[in-house]
Design a protein that fits this description.
CATH topology: Pnp Oxidase, Chain A
Shape: globular
Oligomer: single chain
CATH architecture: Roll
Strand content: 35-45%
Mean pLDDT: 94
CATH superfamily: Electron Transport, Fmn-binding Protein, Chain A
CATH class: Mainly Beta
Radius of gyration: 15 Å
Length: 158
């Protein structure tokens, strides 16, 4: 299988952009840009995301029982890029606060889902995280989209 062509084909699927964040027992914040986020169930309220097994952020998410999914808006493109790199002070931009359930949340995000990790499962070169939504908030901002290696705006309603 041609991995480059497969990656290109998978990139044709437009996704929202999120920053998934957590805090370890010592209070250190960790987070990264994630487009592999999905709703999973309403009853119980579950969400799903995945993290590359080679990610430097893996240890932080393994050490914490909670995470937050911060859905980004159009104005957060720079923040998305910042959290997609090895930037030392990722939380130095944006209005971040510790959420009610112990993970950092972004003020002004399109939506925030504060979750407790229910299960983790390795699948190929990624670890899947399933979380129970403990709290959420949403705002009527335009979401940031990602497709074929580029950021996009939401278009007209069809």
């Amino acid at each position: 299988m041609d991995k480059r062509r497969l990656r290109t084909a998978l990139g044709r699927f437009a996704t929202g952009v999120t920053i998934v964040s957590t805090a370890d027992a010592a209070g250190h914040w960790s987070g990264l840009t994630v487009s592999s986020f999905s709703s999973l169930s309403l009853e119980p309220p579950l969400v799903l995301w995945s993290l590359r097994l080679e990610s430097p952020s893996l240890a932080a998410f393994e050490a914490s029982p909670v995470f937050a999914v911060n859905v980004l808006g159009e104005e957060h493109m720079g923040l998305s890029r910042r959290f997609a790199t090895a930037h030392e002070h990722r939380f130095g931009e944006g209005e971040w606060a510790l959420g009610a359930h112990g993970a950092p949340v972004l003020n002004g995000a399109v939506a925030v889902f504060e979750c407790e990790t229910v299960t983790r499962q390795d699948a190929g070169d990624h670890r899947l995280y399933i979380g129970r939504v403990l709290a959420f908030a949403e705002h009527a901002h335009a979401p940031l989209l990602y497709r074929s290696g580029h950021y996009h705006r939401l278009g007209e309603t069809l």
